[in-house]
Automatic annotation (TrEMBL):
Residues 190-219 are annotated as: Disordered. Residues 191-216 have a biased composition (Polar residues). This is Solute carrier family 13 member 3. The lineage of its organism: Eukaryota, Metazoa, Chordata, Craniata, Vertebrata. It comes from the Eukaryota. The keyword Transcription does not apply. The gene is SLC13A3.
C-alpha cells in the first residue's frame, strides 16, 4: 500500500509532463477516423483545449500552437495564421488596458470608489450596494482583478471600523458553553475599533459593539458577533462577483467580449451589428438587472435586507456608523483636491468612452461617416486617445516658466510612460486572444465548425429561450474550472454554426463571465478567498444562486430588447452566404427562419 501511495505521489508531481506527453498520443485516432482536414483541425483544437483546461503549458504558450501546427498539418498557411494575433480587436483591448493603467497610475479609480461610498453611506445593505456599484463600474474599464484588489482593502478598513477586530469576532462566534462572566472577561479588554488604518493606539475602549459588555449577555454577544461575521463575508464576496458582472457591460471590460467581436468579423465580415456602442446598449441594462438581483441575494444571505447594524443600543449603532464614515472621509481627505493629472485623465477617459459610443451607434448617424466607409473602427479611436496620454503633460503648463530664470528646470513628465504601460498590460492575454482568433480561423477554413454544427442542429429545434438557458448554463459551469477566455475560444466557433449566430453567441459570451462558485474560477474569486475569511462552501452556496440569476437575466435580455436590437427573429442575410459556402455540403439552410421567437 505504501509503495502504491508513493508511486501515486510521484505521478502527481509529474502530472503536467504526463499530460503533455500522453494527450497528443491519445488524440491520434482523430487523424484517421474523420475527414482529413476536419480531423486534423479537431486534433489541434482538442489538444489546445486540454492544455488550456489543465494549464499543462502556460495559457499564452498554448495559444501560440496554431502558428506551428496549422501550417505543418496543412490546415492553414502561416500567412493566414499569424495576422490573427494582432487584429484590430486586439488593439481595442490593448488601448483599453493602457487607459486603465493611466487611471490606476494617478489614483482616479480610488477617488471614484470613495466618492460612491460617501454617497451611499455605511448602513450594511446600502454599503454592500455601494461596493457592488463601484466594483461593477470600475470593472467596465479596468480589469476585474485590479478592481477587486483595489476594493478589498477599502472594504476591510470600513468593516474594522464598523465591527472592530476580526479575530475577536471569530472568537466570539465560536463560544458555545462559556459562562457569561468568562466571556465578558475575555472580550472586555478588546479594542473594538482597533485598526491600523484608523490609527488607534491600542488602549481599551468599551464603547464599541464587539467588546460591549455592559448589559449584554454571553448569548447576545455571540449572536451579534455571528451576524457581524455574516455581514463581513457578504462585503468580501460581493466585490469579486460585482467585478465579474461589470466586465460584461463593455467590449473592453473582459476578454470574451472581444473574442466575440473578433470571431464575428472573421466568420461574418458583413455583420456590423455589434460595436462598442451597440454592445453597451444591450449589455449595460443586463448588467444593471443582474447586479440588483445579485445585491438582493447577497444582502439577504449575509445579514438580511435591513439597513441597520446588529448592535444592541441605538447610540452604539450610531457611534459605529460614525466611525466607519470617518474612515471613508479620512481616506478621501488624504487624496486631497483633484490635481491636474487626475483631471486630465478623467477628461480623456470620458472622451474615450464618448467617442467609442458615438462612432456608429446605429440609431443615429455616428461620426465615422466623416471618413471612408469601413475605414475607422473602435481600435482606431482607442489608439488615438491612448497615444495622447504618452505626451500630454501631467503638470499644468505655465507660460511664465519660459520667462522666469529662477523657475526650476524640472523634467517633463507625461501622463503615462511606456515603462508603466509595459508593467500594467498583460501581454499574455493579447497572445491568448490571438490564439483564439487563429483557432476560429482554422475551424472556419477547415470546415470543422460547420461539420460539428451539423451534428448540433437538433439544438435549433429546442424552444429558443430554453436553448439560450441551456447554452448559458453549460458554459457558466464549464468556466468554473477553466479560463473564461479559453472557454469561449473553444466553444464559440461551434456555436456560430447554430441558427441565427448572434442568438447563441451573445449568451455564450456573457455566460463565460458568470463563474461564481469556486475560488479557482476567476482571479477575483481567488483574491477574495485568499483573505482567509471565506470558506469554499460560502462561495458555492452564494455562487450557485448567482449563476441561476445570471442565466435568467441573460435569457430575459436576449428575448426582449436583444431580440429587437439584433433582429433575432429572422435568419440574417449576412450569415447565409458564409455558411452556404462551407466545405460541408450536407447542411441544409432553410429559406425561412429556423426558429420563431414570436411564439415565446
Amino acid at each position: 500500500m505504501e509503495t502504491i501511495s508513493t508511486f501515486a505521489k510521484k505521478l502527481w508531481c509529474v502530472k503536467k509532463q504526463l499530460i503533455l506527453f500522453l494527450t497528443p498520443l491519445i488524440l491520434l485516432p482523430l487523424l484517421f477516423g474523420l475527414p482529413e482536414k476536419e480531423g486534423k483541425c479537431l486534433y489541434v483544437v482538442l489538444l489546445m483545449a486540454v492544455f488550456w483546461c489543465t494549464e499543462a503549458l502556460p495559457l499564452a504558450v498554448t495559444a501560440m500552437l496554431p502558428v506551428c501546427l496549422f501550417p505543418t498539418m496543412g490546415i492553414l498557411p502561416s500567412k493566414k495564421v499569424c495576422p490573427q494575433y494582432f487584429l484590430d480587436t486586439n488593439f481595442l483591448f490593448l488601448s483599453g488596458l493602457v487607459m486603465a493603467s493611466a487611471i490606476e497610475e494617478w489614483g482616479l479609480h480610488r477617488r471614484i470608489a470613495l466618492k460612491v461610498l460617501k454617497i451611499v453611506g455605511v448602513k450594511p445593505a446600502w454599503l454592500i450596494l455601494g461596493m457592488m456599484i463601484t466594483s461593477a463600474f470600475l470593472s467596465m474599464w479596468l480589469s476585474n482583478t485590479a478592481t477587486t484588489a483595489m476594493m478589498l482593502p477599502i472594504a476591510n478598513a470600513i468593516l474594522e471600523s464598523l465591527f472592530g477586530d476580526l479575530a475577536t469576532l471569530k472568537e466570539n462566534c465560536k463560544v458555545k458553553d462559556e459562562t457569561e462572566g468568562e466571556l465578558l472577561c475575555r472580550v472586555s479588554p478588546t479594542v473594538p475599533w482597533q485598526s491600523g488604518h484608523s490609527g488607534s493606539t491600542g488602549q481599551s475602549d468599551h464603547s464599541g459593539s464587539t467588546g460591549q459588555s455592559d448589559g449584554s449577555t454571553a448569548e447576545e454577544i455571540r449572536t451579534e458577533s455571528e451576524y457581524q461575521m455574516k455581514v463581513w463575508k457578504g462585503f468580501l464576496i460581493c466585490i469579486p462577483y460585482a467585478a465579474s458582472i461589470g466586465g460584461t457591460a463593455t467590449l473592453t471590460g473582459t476578454a470574451p467580449n472581444l473574442i466575440l467581436i473578433g470571431q464575428l468579423k472573421s466568420y461574418f465580415p458583413e455583420c456590423d451589428l455589434i460595436n462598442f456602442g451597440s454592445w453597451f446598449a444591450f449589455a449595460f441594462p443586463l448588467m444593471v438587472i443582474f447586479l440588483i438581483l445579485g445585491w438582493l441575494w447577497i444582502s439577504f444571505l449575509y445579514g438580511g435586507l435591513n439597513t441597520r447594524l446588529c448592535v444592541k443600543k441605538q447610540d452604539e449603532r450610531a457611534q459605529a456608523e460614525a466611525k466607519a464614515e470617518a474612515v471613508i472621509d479620512e481616506d478621501y481627505r488624504k487624496l486631497g483636491p483633484i490635481n491636474f493629472a487626475e483631471g486630465a485623465i478623467a477628461f480623456f477617459f470620458i472622451l474615450f468612452a464618448v467617442l467609442l459610443f458615438t462612432r456608429d451607434p446605429k440609431f443615429v448617424t455616428g461620426w465615422s461617416t466623416f471618413f471612408n466607409k469601413g475605414y475607422v473602427s473602435d481600435a482606431t479611436t482607442g489608439v488615438i486617445i491612448v497615444s495622447i496620454l504618452f505626451f500630454f503633460p501631467s503638470q499644468k503648463p505655465s507660460l511664465s516658466w519660459w520667462f522666469d530664470s529662477r523657475a526650476p528646470n524640472t523634467p517633463y513628465v507625461p501622463l503615462l510612460s511606456w515603462k508603466k504601460a509595459q508593467e500594467c498590460v498583460p501581454w499574455n492575454i493579447i497572445l491568448l486572444l490571438g490564439g483564439g482568433f487563429a483557432m476560429a480561423k482554422g475551424c472556419e477554413e477547415s470546415g470543422l465548425a460547420a461539420w460539428i454544427g451539423a451534428y448540433l442542429q437538433p439544438i435549433a429545434q429546442i424552444p429558443p429561450a430554453v436553448a439560450v438557458m441551456f447554452i448559458t448554463a453549460f458554459l457558466a459551469c464549464f468556466t468554473e474550472f477553466a479560463s473564461n477566455t479559453a472557454t469561449i475560444i473553444i466553444f464559440l466557433p461551434v456555436i456560430a454554426e447554430l441558427v441565427n449566430p448572434l442568438y447563441f453567441m451573445i449568451p455564450a459570451t456573457t455566460g463565460c463571465s458568470f463563474a461564481f462558485m469556486l475560488p479557482v474560477s476567476t482571479p477575483p474569486n481567488s483574491i477574495a478567498f485568499a483573505s482567509g475569511h471565506l470558506l469554499v462552501k460560502d462561495m458555492v452556496k452564494t455562487g450557485f444562486v448567482m449563476n441561476i440569476l445570471g442565466i435568467l437575466s441573460v435569457s430575459l435580455a436576449m428575448n426582449t430588447w436583444g431580440r429587437a436590437m439584433f433582429s433575432l427573429e429572422t435568419y440574417p442575410d449576412w450569415a447565409r452566404p458564409v455558411n452556404m459556402s462551407s466545405t460541408v455540403t450536407d447542411i441544409q439552410f432553410p429559406s425561412v427562419p429556423p426558429f420563431n421567437l414570436t411564439s415565446l
